[in-house]
Amino acid sequence: MDKHLEADFSLRVPPSREASVRNTGYAFGGSTCGLVKCAEKGCLNQCDRDFSQSTNCQMYVSSLISFSVKDSVVIFHGPVGCGAQAHMIDYSVKTFGARRGVKMSGARWFSTNLDESDVIGGGEAKLRQTIIEADRRFRPTAIFVINSCAPAIIGDDLDEVVNNVQREVAATVVPLHSPGFKAKVFSSAYDVVYHGILQKFPFVPQPYVDYQPFSRADRDYEQKTREYEHQKSRTVNLFNAWSIGPDDENEIRRLFEALGLNVRIFVEFKEPDEWRWLSEAALNVCFCHVHDLYFVEFLKQKLGIPYILPNIPIGLSATRNFVTEVAAFFGLEEEAEKLIAKEEEEVKAALAPLVDKIRGKRVLISGGYLRIGATGLFANEVGLTVVGFRNFNYDLFGNKLFSEVEEKIGDVSNVISTQPSELLNELRKLKPDFAISHPGVGVWLTKAGVPSITLFAQRFPYFGYRGAYALTRRIVRTLANPNYARNLAANARLPYRQKWYELDPYHYLAAKPGADAA
Q1: CA pair distance 238, 255, nearest whole angstrom
Q2: Using a CB cutoff of 8 Å and minimum separation of 24, what contacts does 86-92 make?
Q3: pTM of the model
Q4: Considering only CA atoms, which of 328, 327, 310, 285 is closest in space to residue 400?
Q5: I want to staple 19 with a disulfide (CB 3.0 to 4.6 A). Which of 15, 28, 244, 429 is the partner?
Q6: How many helices (H) and strands (E) does the chain have?
Q7: Which residues is 239 bridged to in the sheet?
Q8: Which helix (H) or strand (E) covers residue 304, if one does?
Q9: Do 271 and 248 form a contact (C-beta atoms < 8 A)?
Q10: For helices 316-329 and 464-480, what crossing angle results, to 10°?
Q11: Strand segments (E) across 142-186
């Protein structure tokens, strides 16, 4: 696993995913078999586009983690428009912090509001003043400074400003180099934020790395230490993500605690001081290793904490594998088998009347490759016909998952694309009854007349057995009420000519200059 991740944690700026994870791709049109083979052969990263309608911005993704850190302030260093998405984030931060029992202040943010004069003369003075003002006004624990495209192009020295101003403010100031143009794989932003965090915060209880929770003068020191070490040997750090809601965290916590494990959830919706306890665990587990691989690799190298990367626990088989893999690490295979058998019996009984209502319906699934692969396997479990997948990006870590997808579902359409034009062209050819899609994509689907439900949302459960039941209920309701999508399609005009729909959806795919065609 390690050899697929090229990570040098001493660098000032982490490399993009295109450089750090081998055979990463952001453009492909074909089938599941072709996708897996292309990734295995190493040709996936040779594909590009002659034309792109749009793409995702890693700066925006960086802000999601930053805003979810309790007692933080975010500074967008750039034009004021680069912070527009913060208004949308504010509700989620407060609402889903409260659902976790954490009182959040919402999305507190500043913009350096660079104008034409700043682009000519530089924006470093404005950034320094903004950091001081953010610290004076809110007295936060952490200030995340997110670089956008304009200051990165003109050469503002983000690190120099942060290092010089740090002695003047109480908050820990964290520079995040996230200009949108620096990475075509937007999940590079996760590495950027974690890189900033690991450079600025400790992950061991203070003041010693070799932490002793009790005084040696305590007459019960040895007994208490043994009990503490036993508890630590049964402790799991679960790494969440912005897209993972409290219901999902609670479901997996419930299953692990039923096995006698202690569960801590990091890093979002926690104060930085709580991150010190990351070292007091036996195992790190990623809900989504696209999100957390960089950080858990750092914790392994620097603190010696092992990690495992099971697939996202969406659906019955994925949940079984997730729980079993973690249980095996602790030697709890028998306990896990009994727990899983009981849980599966209950959820299958609950699913039976719902499955009859959706069996055979055609579904297209769009989003991050780990989520859509697991969701596709679950769709197959409940009798749906999966007609295609649309990945935002892909790398070798997806091969095991999609080999299973090919075995169980077949060699269906499987592409890598963030382009609405390609999505709508593909829709006309695949003709799904409904879609499961990443937020923001559903609007295109619905305007095309295809009912859509979100691939994730913090307010809905997705993970584990309770998530399987809740997701199936939502599918039933969506298929029973398709009129909104139909009416919208009849009255909304899409921005593409008929000529475009007559072309191959991936007409603009091409090999990168100097590369052999994939």
Answers
A1: 13
A2: 89/63, 89/64, 92/242, 92/458
A3: 0.92
A4: 310
A5: 15
A6: 21, 15
A7: 266, 286
A8: none
A9: no
A10: 170
A11: 142-147, 172-177
First-to-last alpha carbon distance for the chain, in angstroms, is 24
Instruction: Enter the tokens of residue 235.
Output: 């402790």
Strands 509-511 and 47-49 come out as: antiparallel
The shares of helix, strand and coil residues in the chain, as percent rounded to the nearest 5, are 50, 15, 35
- The answer to whether the beta carbons of residues 165 and 87 sit under 8 Å apart is no
Distance from the Cα of residue 149 to its chain's centroid = 22
Longest Cα pair distance anywhere in the chain, in angstroms? 83
Q: Please name the residue that has the structure tokens 């890693």.
A: 58
Fold of 221-329: Rossmann fold (3.40.50)
Thinking of the domain 58-183, which architecture would CATH place it in? 3-Layer(aba) Sandwich (3.40)
Contact 47, 327 (CB under 8 A): no
d(CA 70, CA 65): 10
Domain 338-502, CATH among 2.60.40.10, 3.30.720.120, 3.30.9.10, 3.40.50.1980: 3.40.50.1980
